[in-house]
Write a structure and sequence with these properties.
The chain is mostly helical and 83 residues long. Helix content is 66%, strand content 0%. This is Complex 1 LYR protein.
Amino acid sequence: MNKALRIYGEVLRLVRRLPADSRPYYAKYARENFVNYRELDDNDPAALHELFLRAYNHSVWVLNKYSVDQAAASKLKEICGGV
């Protein structure tokens, strides 16, 4: 759970790098996704890794969409386990 909270926090930090008019949408989107998966079994490392990988990949996609340097997601990549 601690790792998921760190990833969520880092995703929200990345949202702050987006244009102001798109931040509320992506902040809400991130929250909804983390809430939807909070019941995921902590004892299934494969499922958690897949979820963390999706969080990283989607974050990079959004950063690229808004021409934000992908390197901004390096801390998220580190937290996710070096994806």
